[in-house]
Design a protein that fits this description.
Helix content: over 70%
Order of helices and strands: HHH
Oligomer: single chain
Largest sheet: none
Structural class: mainly alpha
Length: about 100
């Protein structure tokens, strides 16, 4: 009888390989590639569209990174501040 891992690992690997082509580019880059195939545009315009799409995707990813860091940092600060206030309130109650 085959081991469970011997079946699971190749199955997961195959599923990742099948999904990879559909997730290979961001939506902005996909739109730039599709616009590059447009017959009305010149090759120079399609190259500038692709470059703009890459630039916007990088800016979006950096923005998401800093937004998440700011959100988690703010949440941790609120938790820390609340804990300090509770600790100060307990010290006041003990002093009374």
């Amino acid at each position: 009888m085959l081991n469970f891992r011997a079946i699971l690992v190749p199955l997961l690997l195959a599923s990742f390989l099948l999904v990879a082509p559909t997730a290979s580019a961001c939506p902005g880059c996909k739109e730039a590639v599709a616009a590059a195939d447009d017959e009305n545009g010149t090759p120079e315009q399609s190259i500038s569209r692709a470059g703009a799409a890459y630039s916007y995707s990088v800016l979006f990813m950096l923005g998401m990174l800093f937004t998440m860091l700011l959100g988690f940092g703010g949440a941790f600060y609120r938790i820390y501040r609340k804990a300090r206030l509770q600790q100060a309130a307990q010290l006041v109650r003990k002093a009374e």
